[in-house]
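pasting for the record
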Amino acid sequence: KERIEHVRRSLPELPEERAKRYVDHFGLPEYDATVISAFKLSSDYYEQLVNKLNHIVTPKSISNFFMTDILRVMKLEAEKTGISVDEMTAVPIHVEHSTSLLKLQANGTISGRIAKEIFELVYSEQKSPEDLVREKGLIQISDETSIAKICERVIEENTEQFNEYLSGKEKLFGFFVGQAMKLSGGKLNPAKVNDILKRLIEAKKDTRH
């Protein structure tokens, strides 16, 4: 019994145990936990991100990033090299680069849309997210005056849709947000766009009464 207990304690954490811990401690859905913990390489990478981004990005948000982006490039790399994912010895995106990218998005330096663009460049060029953001001039615009000017332009250039919105078609609000993001190349802070657009529309409503 002592030998069995000694061997049991010396064994590494099994995938099923890791998955359960991810559900219990990180609040991940069982599906996410099972996929991430399937291989030691992927689960170690995920846990490094969680530890490095503690109190900055939630474990679930990191899981979303891992499941959609990291796993995709791992599969691409496996196809290119002719080895299976479970035989890989390293994740093709350095953990520090993923950490930096998620921090830049979390602190509002870049938008979610720009983060996707930067991720692809990190993978293809193997440069840090900070360097790429500077090189490409992709820092998110959070200045309210600049955002207001773009929102004003969107309203002025889409008077037909604006009148329809005022007549009750409130779903068109998303159209104005989309146009503002399009004009800025996705650089605007989405939360501020929503807030400023609402204020501008309310102000214009008042002037019409």
